[in-house]
Amino acid sequence: MHKFDPSAKGVYLITVTPFTDSGALDLASTDRMVDFCLERGVTGLTILGIMGEATKLTAEEAKAFTRQVVRRVGGRVPVICGVSSPGFAAMGELTREVMGIGASGVMVAPPSTVRTDDQIAGYFDMVNETLGAVPWCLQDHPVSTTVQMSPAVILRILKSSPNCVMLKHEDWPGLAKLSAIRAASDRGEVKRVSILTGNGGGLFLPEELSRGADGAMTGFAWPEMMVDVVAAHARGDVERAHDLFDAYLPLARYEQQAGIGLAVRKHLLHQRGAIASAFARRPAPKLSPQDVADIERLVRRQEKRLSQLG
């Protein structure tokens, strides 16, 4: 079994949250989604994230969804839960709930209220006090948090956080940052942690792997793309990794459009049979007929290119 610790690697897929056409939480479809992901070789699941519409769930729904995912996974891969919150009472409560249900660890991003390096580091000192012995992932996603964490402050956090086992790197541009953090651990200046990358459905995944990333933690309606790219890179077939990535890139790019990205992903997952409905809770985008036509064309072209690659 894969473990959520500094040796974690592969693909920790950021999942959507399935709803019925009426907007209710769909636990039966949750089972279908988990099976879909595991059948495609993911090594972990990350739930209650931004693309999982976590902010649109009630506290009881978040617990019910976590319980269903953990139960369906059955210990086959780690399940990581997003618990980011400006307040530590809420973070601590949700962490206790999900860990009690059987989650493997949690993920925390800084709130938009911290700005200086000292403020950021001080915030994560309080995260350590709140989480205690729970293994956790540091999420660096300036696009959503508006918080810029330099390599120096990330290294500072890692040095003071014995239970931080992973960095979710999704700064953009961020290849130089990734290289600097990995080089610091290679020199023994800081403990080695797993680095999984996000960056818009893995839009820079091959380059990030070459810079020292251990895999991906992001979402895409074709999780097997990330699984196969990471596997090819790990066995030293870098050109194959790039060829596979290139085949999926147009659709991955389309799925990352601001505003409609979630609608595109849920539409595709519905088309692939992973979820019963493409419904997203308000506020939510809707696809136009032209959007659907674009998607259908991109899927056809992707299938053609994959067939050529064998």
From TrEMBL:
Keyword Lyase belongs to the record: yes
Family annotation (SUPFAM superfamilies): Aldolase
Keywords: Lyase
Domain of life assignment: Bacteria
Signal peptide stretch: none
Example GO molecular function: 4-hydroxy-tetrahydrodipicolinate synthase activity
Annotated InterPro entries: Aldolase_TIM, DapA-like
Gene3D superfamilies: Aldolase class I
GO cellular-component term (any): cytosol
Pfam families with a match to the protein in the record: DHDPS
Binding of pyruvate, residues: M217
Family that this chain belongs to: Belongs to the DapA family.
Name of the molecule in the record: Dihydrodipicolinate synthase family protein
Source species: Ramlibacter albus
